[in-house]
Design goal:
This protein is of the alpha+beta class. It is built from 18 helices and eleven strands. It folds into three domains: about 70 residues; about 110 residues, OB fold (Dihydrolipoamide Acetyltransferase, E2P); about 280 residues, no CATH class. The strands form three sheets. Strands 1, 2, 3, 4, 5, 8 and 9 form a seven-stranded mixed beta sheet that branches. A two-stranded antiparallel ribbon has the order 6-7. The radius of gyration is 24 Å and the shape is globular. The two termini are about 30 Å apart.
């Protein structure tokens, strides 16, 4: 029943994402569902279960379409009347600044817009691009001068397009500004919890930067916190060519390692207390990392697994995935069609859950030492499910993904553990942090070297022209 509802819910959201819907359309769906429910009383009993599943599927579609109808996709922005105009406004930085190589992107929750002598109250977010310096922080109240532009689709050199506007709409943003003047008014207007977590994150990353050179320190930040932007364009392209971009995104793999570490750290406490602290620790860690869709998907699934184990209940991972998808899409249905990280995360998880068991029996000739067989089967399974998506969106077919993943995945848990120890030791003394940093550096250097070699193998990654998109449609 749950699977039937989930598929219906996803179909409803997909329909609402690509087709303009109306109240009449929703009413027609409700009537169709009621007809299906009523028809089951006029058929043989052995066929009623199939009809019941169809009814639940239709109910899921109704909920999905209805949720899309009241989503931001069908909501007009308060700022539409100011589009393509220069405005003066005040607002608060509502998320952690996204520091890139050449600039910083700030998400500002506007509170007031000044039109002549009139102040207009608003409650809407915009994304502005500013120089790296001066630095701004989450919770800063700022005054800005900006020209509001509606984001458009970004077209790559090979003809592929990225719906940047849809991507921002997922985050409740309708407008951006590239040439923006930002002046600080005051600090400390954000959540105390978030502010504290982001300060800890900044101090921790600075500790890593002091103990490790680049690009190893940036790679470690990606492994531990999902902060991959500072790796640079060239290294990120190498990760893409070798199919290992997932290691610098907080996936289920990284979250599971963090969860086990937290639980083990609190093992000396009473069981209920250690469990509660561990669960809270996972939530705080997800917020600290920036709270991306893939991180929350992984965290929810890990938390459900921990609760099931604690309560001695069966853990059916397929149902948990369905529950997690519905739980995430109910408050924000735009994730399904417009957030690539959510899409990729769900596809990879589907591969691990449903495809990997069919792949594993064919790999009995691979040793189980160091988890090698599991790494190989998981890599093959996830590649099967995400490959069409990657080709469609990026146009890159990696032929070295399997060997590169096999060579580096086994070193990730130890690198994360030693990297965490390096950051913590740096709080005490820079010289003490050099001890775990030495071993961490060796592992990180090894990972980067393997990726670099794999990315430079002739024909290791094939760029497919845009014509292949039509083959996959």
């Amino acid at each position: 029943m749950l699977i039937s509802f989930v598929f219906g819910f996803l179909c409803g959201i997909t329909t609402g994402s690509v087709v303009s819907i109306s109240i009449g359309f929703i009413v027609a769906l409700v009537i169709s569902a009621l007809i299906l429910f009523g028809y089951k009383f006029f058929i043989e009993e052995n066929s009623r279960y199939i009809l019941l599943l169809a009814f639940v599927f239709m109910v899921g579609i109704v909920f999905g379409v209805g949720r899309m109808y009241v989503s931001d996709l069908y909501t007009e922005s308060e700022l539409s009347r100011f589009a393509n105009q220069k405005i003066w406004a005040e607002g608060i930085i509502v998320s952690e600044p996204d520091v890139r190589e050449n600039n910083t992107k700030l998400t500002i929750g506007l509170r007031s817009i000044f039109v002549g002598t009139t102040t207009v109250a608003v409650r809407e977010k915009i994304v502005v691009t500013v120089p790296i310096h001066p630095e701004f922080r989450y919770g800063d109240k700022v005054k800005i001068s900006a020209t509001l532009k509606e984001p458009t689709k970004i077209k790559s050199e090979d003809g592929r397009t990225f719906d940047y506007g849809g991507y921002l709409r997922v985050r409740g943003v309708w407008f951006t500004s590239s040439y923006t003047t930002v002046d600080l008014i005051s600090n400390g207007h954000g959540s105390v919890v978030k502010s504290s977590l982001f300060k800890i994150k900044k101090t921790f990353t600075e500790s890593l930067d002091n103990a490790l050179p680049e690009p190893e320190s940036s790679l470690l930040s990606g492994l531990l916190l999902g902060a991959k932007q500072s790796l640079g364009k060239e290294i990120l392209e190498e990760f893409q060519k070798t199919g290992v971009s997932h290691i610098v995104v907080l996936s289920g793999y990284n979250i599971a390692i963090v969860a086990n570490s937290i639980m083990n750290f609190f093992r000396f406490l009473p069981k209920n207390l250690s469990f509660g602290l561990g669960a809270v620790g996972i939530v705080f860690f997800t917020i600290l990392s920036g709270g991306g869709a893939s991180a929350w998907r992984a965290s929810i699934m890990v938390l459900v697994a921990l609760f099931a184990k604690r309560m001695n209940r069966d853990y059916k991972i397929g149902r948990v995935l369905g529950f997690t998808i519905v739980l995430m899409l109910a408050p924000n249905p735009l994730l399904l069609a417009f957030d690539p990280s959510f899409q990729l995360s769900v596809l990879a998880t589907i591969g691990l859950i449903f495809v990997s068991p069919y792949v594993s029996p064919y790999l009995v000739w691979i040793t189980e030492k160091f988890g090698l067989r599991e790494i190989v089967s998981s890599t093959i399974a996830t590649q099967i499910t995400v490959l069409p998506y990657l080709i469609y969106n990026m146009g890159v077919l990696s032929l070295v993904s399997l060997p590169v993943n096999v060579l580096i995945l086994g070193t990730i848990p130890l690198a994360m553990f030693l990297g965490f120890a390096t950051g913590i030791a740096g709080f005490l003394s820079l010289y003490i942090s050099y001890i775990p940093a030495f071993f961490t550096y060796i592992l990180l250097w090894y990972q980067l070297t393997v990726v670099h070699i794999g990315a430079n193998i002739p024909f290791g990654a094939i760029s497919l022209p845009d014509i292949y998109i039509f083959v996959l449609k």
